[in-house]
Amino acid sequence: MVKRCFLFTVLLLSNLFFPSCYKKGNIIPNNKTFANDSITVQNVSYLNYIHPLLQKNCSTCHGKGGSAEPWWYNTNTYENAMEYGNPIYRTINNNTMPPPPKFPFTERDKELIKAWIDKGYPLD
Q1: What is the number of other CB atoms lying within 10 angstroms of the CB of residue 124?
Q2: Which residues of 5-40 are buried (b: 16+ CB within 10 A; e: fewer)?
Q3: Residue 72, Cα to own-chain centre: how many angstroms?
Q4: Are 96 and 84 in contact, with CB atoms under 8 Å apart?
Q5: Across all residues in the chain, what is the average pLDDT?
Q6: For residues 17 and 74, what is the distance between their CA atoms, to the nearest angstrom?
Q7: How far apart are the first and last CA of the chain?
Q8: Could you give the CA distance from residue 17 to residue 92 in angstroms, rounded to a whole number?
Q9: Over the stretch 95-110, which tens digit does the pLDDT of each residue have?
Q10: pLDDT tens digits, one per residue of 7-20
């Protein structure tokens, strides 16, 4: 009985201290924008911004083997990004993604994602 109680306590505490996204990935060291200075609302595309963004900051949890809910399975394809562009933007815009320890997206990032959607999801 004592062993069972101890095991339950350890499991409970481990869930409190480990973030829901457990798959290894790059933790963003500060709240700088993900986009480099050459990317603008005029030239934003899947290849120059959206794909690298999803790959670096979303696929660690939403990719194959990730710990995130399966509502969006990021296959790192253009078609997948287009299909889920609006829900991705909404979760980023209301700061529910990404979870800690990663930092929220900057206003510039949000603007670029919105511009990509508004421009009709340009590939390149």
Answers
A1: 8
A2: eeeeeeeeeeeeeeeebeeebeebeeeeebbeeebe
A3: 11
A4: no
A5: 76
A6: 26
A7: 61
A8: 23
A9: 888 877 677 788 899 9
A10: 444 444 434 333 44
* Top-confidence range, 20-34, 44-58, 68-82: 44-58
Q: Which residue has the tokens 């929220």?
A: 104
State which amino acid sits at residue 76. N
Query: How far, in Å, CA of 33 to CA of 112, rounded?
Result: 10
Q: Answer whether 33's CB lies under 8 Å from 111's CB.
A: no
Higher pLDDT, 24 or 99: 99
Number of helices (H), then strands (E), belonging to the chain: the values are 6, 0
C-alpha to C-alpha distance for 82 and 121, rounded to whole angstroms: 6
Structure tokens at 82: 């287009």
Q: Which residue has the tokens 């979760």?
A: 91
